[in-house]
Specification:
Blueprint lengths: L6 E4 L5 E4 L1 H6 L7 E4 L2 E2 L2 E2 L2 H14 L9 E6 L5 H13 L4 E6 H8 L10 E6 L4 E7 L2 E8 L3 H16 L1 E2 L2 H11 L10 E8 L5 E7 H7 L1 H17 L2 H10 L1 E4 L8 H9 L3 E2 L7 H11 L1 H4 L9
Parallel strand pairs: 6-7, 8-14, 14-15
Antiparallel strand pairs: 1-2, 1-3, 4-5, 8-9, 9-10, 11-12, 12-13
This protein binds adenosine-5'-triphosphate and magnesium ion.
């Protein structure tokens, strides 16, 4: 299953009304007492109870009952702190797991993309998600160098909302901002030349208002986020040992995550690193596919997991 990390709650009773896509559809159009909550921000748990409840709902949805206490492998940002790690572990246990293991997202992505990570050859993954971006170079089953940024697609959406307010005095919804980004957003001027008409709310009058945004404007509005993602990739590659960098020149950079689908992202990374970017078969799913493979071959993959947070 593939769902956005969001819950709709009744703010009076804290009852969960909807999860995932269904809750996301509710954002921005709920009556006052229904609130949409994202229990994770920038890759970290911000609301422990809501996270545990969401994990429980996820387990229910995939048919795991409260009684068979599953083993759970959670993919986490590689920049996770010890405190955050404990929070992930506790929340997962509270949701009914008998055993919790964690794996760094870029490593899971590399497994999911079928890269030969156990070989003495350098490989590089850049994972641009919603709240985080992770770039990592692997060899011999481990991360050799990595750069993690707490910047991702959500920050681009927020930057677009800020642009709407500043340039047009118009409040754009979170979902509208994401739709604009996906429709005409890009990280490279070669994608300029289109525009989109969107609805927002006039900040002065409070009335509905339509504005037209061009792709060049959108590109400018999200440039700061895109630039920082591209420069983290350059930095990470620069930290790799010369022989590994040589391997990566040959193997290419593997770009994954939803943010990788932004137009021109691959082109910018290729231009600024001088290394070609190789398409991955399932850029949005390779983290979870990699985690699945790790569970399937648990014993031979265990060396990839993070040591327990306790
Ligand atoms: N076609 C697209 N163009 C641009 N951005 C996209 C596209 N499709 C998805 N995204 C963005 O990708 C982000 C989600 O990516 P992904 O599913 O990889 O994140 P995640 O793994 O849930 O988050 P994280 O890795 O930060 O924990 C969202 O911000 C979404 O707007
Ligand atoms: Mg991710």
């Amino acid at each position: 299953m593939n769902e956005p990390t969001v819950l709709a709650l009744n703010s009076r009773t804290r009852e969960v009304l909807a999860m995932g896509r269904e809750a996301w559809e509710m954002i921005g159009r709920t009556p006052g007492y229904i609130v949409a909550e994202r229990p994770l921000r920038e890759g970290a748990i911000t609301d422990f109870d809501v996270t545990a409840r969401m994990l429980r709902l996820l387990l229910d949805r995939v048919g795991v009952s409260r009684f068979n206490r599953p083993r759970v492998l959670v993919c986490v940002p590689s920049a996770i702190t010890a405190v955050e790690r404990r929070a992930v572990e506790e929340a997962t246990r509270k949701a009914g797991a008998s055993m919790v293991r964690m794996i760094e997202q870029p490593l899971a992505a590399a497994v999911g993309a079928g890269l030969a990570i156990d070989e003495p050859v350098g490989n590089m993954v850049v994972d641009v998600g919603g709240g985080t971006t992770e770039t990592a170079v692997f060899a011999l089953g481990g991360i050799v160098s990595s750069c993690a940024l707490r910047v991702g697609g959500f920050d681009m959406d927020a930057a677009l909302q800020a642009y709407g307010r500043e340039a047009y005095g118009t409040a754009l919804g979170e979902r509208t901002a994401e739709e604009i980004k996906m429709a005409i957003g890009s990280g490279h001027p070669s994608f300029d030349g289109v525009s989109v008409r969107v609805r927002g709310r006039d900040l002065m009058s409070g009335m509905p208002k339509a504005i037209v945004l061009s792709s060049a404007e959108v590109r400018e509005a999200i440039a700061e986020q895109v630039d920082s993602i591209v420069s983290a990739t350059v930095t990470c590659l620069g930290q790799a040992a010369p022989d590994l960098a040589q391997d990566i020149m040959y193997e290419g950079i593997h770009l994954v995550g939803g943010g990788a689908l932004l137009r021109g992202m691959a082109m910018r990374i290729a231009e600024e690193t001088g290394v070609r970017v190789k398409p991955v078969e399932a850029p949005l799913e390779c983290v979870v596919l990699g985690a699945g493979k790790c569970l399937q071959f648990f014993d031979s993959m265990e060396h990839l997991f993070l040591a327990s947070g306790r």
